[in-house]
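[Q] Does anyone have a clean structure-token version of this?
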Amino acid sequence: MFHGYWWLIARRFSPFDAVLLPANGAVVDAPHLQPPSPLPAAMDPRQAAAVAEILDARYAVPMHYEAEQPDKIAGYVEVADPADEFRRHAGQRAHVLAVGEWLDLGA
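[A] Here you go.
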């Protein structure tokens, strides 16, 4: 989640070589959790990009999303295109990796 501790983390540990940040902005409407919340359960791409900037990350990798999820739980709704939106907001920091792809920190 986006929270006020990002600046504290940055002050203590930044700059970061790489950060992996949830970027799907999922809203979860589970039948057993009532009333439903309209708020994202994870950061959306814009928030994730802001965190990458706060942490002064050289590389920012979005995670916790998947373009196609045939077994996705009903009521679990992500932003339309998290990877593309993350690229737009994170700029040159953004490194969207394919499944199984490695990030070479030496490059």
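[Q] Thanks! Anything notable?
[A] Residues 5-93 form one domain.
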